[in-house]
Structures are given as structure tokens and as C-alpha cells.
Design goal:
The chain is of the alpha+beta class. The chain is built from 11 helices and 14 strands. Strands 3-4-5 form a 3-stranded antiparallel sheet. The longest helix is centred in the middle third of the chain and has 18 residues. About 5% of the residues have low confidence.
Length: about 375
């Protein structure tokens, strides 16, 4: 989900889908527990396996634009970043942190020029997460050992890891950082009926601001005088509760000094046409254009600014020798699709139209641009 609005749209679509095809289906009585995070669904099924297989087949036939991959297991299942295990002899659930096979230790290095409190916060945040997500004490200690080693490998001093570990352990023992899942009853405390149709919206007035040295003072002033603000007519209908503050980060030095990939003209607007990014090998295969180009006497107006990193585009591949051309589309970066075409040409794949043309005319080649 590359676009910032993508999770919102995904949530709306999935909410519409489940309301029409899951909650009202003949399979609903078999679902003991149902929860969803965006497009990831977790279900506890109470019924025969053959009926669950029919349910999976059913949901993949509900609409043409949704296809679900699934994992079914009687004893252990991974959902998002948690692994749930059913201990049959105890009749209880055990939770651990789940990491994908592609997990790598990419935590911020201790040598990074960030404030010391941020480095401490990274360690504490991860250990508090473990305290809340790992239900068994033995597993929790193993998880803390694993996390400490991750941070030691990133240059963090051992005394800092040990100090934060003791703090988190003390607060877990004291009931402050209690495991979310202490028994299977914690998971099934609500009925599935409560998850259907009861959508609650946040009634807080959101105040979004760029974080700076005075951000906390501004927050205190607004909260202290909120009753006065609430009486203003401009705040009518928005002042049911005190505001919730959301801080966005300011520009880093990298954002300030890095050369922008955009090309700016004299009036401050982005130039229209196709341009080379100047940072990748694919640039040699990009046909630079202005806002207007003719292909075989067919006029084409280029309506946007495009380069190798553009996404969700319709593109044209033009032969540099003859009048042949090919029109395609891609949701990925433009340069990734170009690379695929070039590899197909190199390997002489007959399934690719450009490859077939070059195989028939050895001296021909293509250049690409977005239309």
C-alpha cells in the first residue's frame, strides 16, 4: 500500500465486503471468533473441516477483485506479528511474537546521530511490546535475550540494555505491562455478534502539527484553555471532547539537502513530460519528451511529470528503427517494468511482444515513455 490513502480505502472495501458476504452468509454460525486488520482476517472456526474448506472456496468467489490466501491449523497460527498456540492438555492459548523468515536486524545503529533518549526509547518500546504480547514467562525471558542480542549487534551498550530490561521486567511483575492474552477466555471474551455492525468513530478533535521545540508548550496551552476554545462558534460541533494531538516529523537534513527528483520550471511548477531520473541504468532506455509528442503522426498530449520512479502509469514502447510500438500499463515503478521487458528481449522470450519484434529484426530496439 504505497499511497497514504490506501489503508483507508482498503478498510472501507473490506468492511463492505464482510458485511455483505460474511456476516450474512450461511457459514456465520460456525465462526466462533472473527477479527480483521485491514485485509488480514483471523477466524476461530467451530465446525467440520469440510465446511471450512467450503467457506474458503465461497469467499474467493464472492467478488472478482478479491482473492484470499489462507492458512489453516488446529494447533498453531500466525496472525500479523503474533503467533498463537493452543495447548491441548491445558486447554489454553499461548502467544509469542512472530517474525517473518525475511526478518532482518534493521534497528537504528547506536552510532547514528540521534538523541540518546530516542535510542533508549527504541529498546524500551520493543521490550514493552514483548511484555504485552508474550504470555508465558519462560518465552518472555527468551524473547528479551533475543532482543538484547539484536541491540548489542547494532552497537548498543550492554548496560543500557540490562537497565531497560530490569525496568520492563519490574513493571510486568507489578502488573503495569501485563500480557494482553493471559488465557483463551481473554480472546473469546466478546461474542462474534459484538463484532458485527458495531463501528465506533473517534469523537476527538484531531490537532495535527509539525513537532518542534515548542510543540509540548502549545499542547499544554490548548488543553488548559480548551473550554474557552469550545465556546467559539468556529468550534461548534467539534468540541465534544478535548483534542487529540498528532505530531508529524519535521524535515531531516537529508530532506533539506537531497536533490529533488522533480524538475521545477521558472514559475515554480513541475515540467510536463518524460524525464530521466539520472540515478539508474534504466535512464538510457527512457525517451525524454515534452508535453506533446507525435507517434506515427498520431498526436499525444503528456499530462503529467514522469520518470523512472513513476508508478500506476500507461506507457508506450517505441521502436527506434520502424513504426512499431507497444502500449502497456503497470502499477509498479516504471523502471521495474522496463527491466522486465529488457530481460525478456535478452532471453528471447516468445511470450513478450517486444522480444518477438527484436527476434524478427535483430538491429531494432525500443525506448519507453509514459503517455
Amino acid at each position: 500500500m504505497g499511497a497514504a490513502c490506501a489503508p483507508i480505502y482498503a478498510n472501507y472495501i473490506m468492511a463492505f465486503w464482510e458485511s455483505n458476504f460474511v456476516f450474512n452468509s450461511e457459514f456465520w454460525p460456525y465462526i466462533k471468533f472473527y477479527t480483521r486488520y485491514l485485509e488480514d482476517i483471523f477466524i476461530v472456526w467451530q465446525g467440520e473441516k469440510i465446511i471450512s474448506e467450503a467457506f474458503i472456496k465461497y469467499i474467493n468467489q464472492t467478488v472478482w477483485f478479491l482473492k484470499f490466501t489462507h492458512e489453516v491449523n488446529d494447533d498453531r497460527i500466525s496472525y500479523l506479528d503474533i503467533c498463537l498456540t493452543y495447548v491441548r492438555d491445558k486447554g489454553s492459548l499461548v502467544s509469542k511474537i512472530y517474525r517473518k523468515p525475511t526478518f532482518s536486524n534493521s534497528y537504528m545503529h547506536f552510532d547514528s546521530w540521534h538523541p540518546g533518549h530516542q535510542k533508549r526509547a527504541i529498546i524500551k518500546g520493543q521490550m514493552v511490546r514483548a511484555a504485552r504480547m508474550v504470555s508465558e514467562e519462560v518465552d518472555f525471558q527468551l524473547e528479551l535475550d533475543f532482543m538484547a542480542q539484536l541491540f548489542l549487534n547494532r552497537g548498543y551498550p550492554r548496560h543500557m540494555c540490562d537497565e531497560i530490561r530490569k525496568e520492563v521486567q519490574f513493571k510486568r511483575d507489578g502488573g503495569i505491562f501485563q500480557p494482553i492474552l493471559k488465557s483463551k477466555d481473554d480472546l473469546f471474551s466478546g461474542t462474534v455478534e459484538q463484532s458485527r455492525g458495531n463501528v465506533h468513530f473517534n469523537e476527538h478533535f484531531l490537532y495535527v502539527m509539525t513537532y518542534n521545540a515548542d510543540a509540548e508548550y502549545i499542547k499544554i496551552i490548548i488543553e488548559k484553555n480548551w473550554e474557552s476554545f469550545a465556546r467559539l462558534k468556529e468550534f461548534k460541533g467539534l468540541a465534544a471532547r478535548k483534542p487529540k494531538f498528532i505530531f508529524r516529523k519535521d524535515k531531516a537534513l537529508k530532506d533539506i539537502f537531497e536533490r529533488s527528483a522533480m524538475i521545477i520550471d521558472n514559475v515554480g511548477n513541475r515540467n510536463t513530460g518524460n524525464f530521466k531520473c539520472g540515478r539508474c541504468l534504466t535512464c538510457t532506455h527512457i525517451l525524454t519528451t515534452g508535453k506533446y509528442i507525435k507517434i506515427n503522426n498520431i498526436p499525444i498530449n503528456i499530462l503529467g511529470h514522469y520518470d523512472c520512479f513513476s508508478v500506476n502509469v500507461v506507457y508506450l514502447a517505441k521502436c527506434q528503427i520502424c513504426t512499431a510500438f507497444y502500449v502497456g500499463k503497470t502499477c509498479r515503478r516504471f523502471r521495474e517494468r522496463i527491466k522486465e521487458h529488457l530481460l525478456d528481449i535478452q532471453h528471447k522470450k516468445p511470450t513478450n511482444a517486444l522480444s518477438r519484434h527484436v527476434m524478427a529484426h535483430n538491429d531494432h530496439s525500443f525506448k519507453f515513455f509514459v503517455i
